[in-house]
Amino acid sequence: MNTTYDKLFIGGEWRAPLSTNRIDVTSASTEEAIGSVPEASEADVDAAVSAARAAFDDPAGWAHWSPDRRADAIEELATQLEIRAEEMARRVSAQNGMPITISSQLEGGFPLVVLRYYAGLLRSSSFEVEQPHIMGGTTVVRREPIGVVSAIAPWNYPQTLASFKHAPALAAGCTLVIKPSPETVLDAFLFAEAVAATSIPAGVVNVVPGGRDIGAYLVGHPDIDKVAFTGSTAAGRQIATLCGQLLRPVTLELGGKSAAIVLDDANLDLSVMGERLFESLLVNNGQTCYLGTRILAPDSRYDEVVDTLATFMSSLPVGDALDPGTMIGPMASRAHRDRVEGFIAKGKSDGARLIVGGGRPDRDKGWFVQPTLFAEVDNSSTIAQQEIFGPVLSVIRYSDTDDAVRIANDSDYGLGGTVWTSDPERGRSVARRVRTGTIGINRYMPDPGAPFGGVKDSGIGRELGPQSMDSYLVYKSIYA
Fold first, then answer.
1. In the chain, how many H helices and how many E strands?
2. 1 pLDDT more than 90
3. Known catalytic residue at 243
4. Hey, which of 63, 98, 126, 396 has its CA 20 to 30 A from 369?
C-alpha cells in the first residue's frame, strides 16, 4: 500500500496546494511508509474557507435547497462511502492500528448510519413555525443554518467522528471546512473522492489536512461561524478560550476516564459477556475516549473480577491491524506508544499490582503495547485519574453502592461509563447517579439517534441525535 495525493479538495475540485510541505504516513503495524499527501498552508485554509463562504452565501445554494433535496444528496454521500467502505477501513487500520474487523464495522459502516439518520431527520423536520404573538399579532420562528463550520476530527476514529460533525451540519444547510489529523489523512482524501461523486455543490465540503498550527488558524479564521472539535482536553481548552473571545459557538468532545461499575450481582461469564466487555473497555486498542478504564469492583467479588479480566485480556490476540484475527493492534504512533508506556511505568512505581501485560509483545516492528491490567489501584493515583488512551485497565475496590458512585464521580471527566448487573432496573438506578454524559447497562454502544457528549473536562455540547443538528441552526423570530 502506497497511496499518494498531489492535490487538495477545495471548492469542489482538486487544486494544487499553495505550499510544498507534505504529510508522510507510516503504518502503525509495520512502521513502513504507506502514503503521502499535501499539507495545507494558511493560504490553502483561506481558499477553503472562502469557497465554503461562497457556497453558503449563494442565494440558490445548499443552504436554500429544500430539505428533501439536501436529504437526497446526503444519502448519495452515504452510498458513495458505502462503495468505498472496504478501502476506507483498510486505510484507517493501516494508519492508526485499529483492528480491521473493528474498522470495517465502524469506520466503514457507522458514518453511513449517521448520514442516513440525518437525511431521515431532515425529511421529517420543520424549520419554520407560526405562533401567536403574546402582545397581539403573530410571530414566525425560523431555524436557519449557522453558516460555515470548522470541523476538526481526531485520529482514533477519523471517519466516524468526522461524520458526527459533517452529517448534522450538512443536514442543517451549513458548509464545512474539515481538518483531519495528520496521523489519518489517507481516509480523508477517500472521503473527499466520495463527496466529489455526489450532487453536493462545489464548496460545501472542503478538506485541509494539517497539524495543530493549521487547526488553530482555522478555528480563529474570521469567516468561520462555528467550530466542532474532537480531541484532547488540553487542546479543547485552547479552542474554547479562542471561541469565547470571538463569541463563536463551539462543540467540544474531549477526553474521558470512565468508570465501569461491577455490581455484586453482575454476570462475569466471559462466554456471555466477553464481547460486551471488549467493546466497553478495550475496543480500538483502548484508543477510545469513552471506555471504562476504571473498573470498580465490590470487596465481596474483587479477586473474581481481577481474575476474570486477567483471563479475558490474556486471551486477546495481538497483531497486525490488517489481520482479521487481531483484536488488539498497535498504538497509532511511536510517540503515543511511548506515552502509554510512561503511564504503565507510573502505575508500577506508584504501587499498583501488575496482573497482566506491562510490556511490549514479541514483535520486530510496530508500535505495540501488551494489554495491561493493574489491581489494587487507588482512585487518586495517576493511572486512575489521567487519560491513558491505550489498552490499560485499573481495578479499584469499593465497599457498597454509595461508595462505587462516589468513586465513579471522583474524576475530572464525565463522558462515558457502564454498570454491570443482573438487574437492569438496578443498573439504571445506579446509572442515574453517575455524573456523566452517557452510560450503558451491561454494554456500551453509542446511539446515533441520541445525544452524545460529556460533562466537566469531557467537553461542551452534544453530538448525534436531533440535538446535534439543532446546534448547527440559529433561531430567528419574525414579528407581524
1. 16, 21
2. no
3. no
4. 396
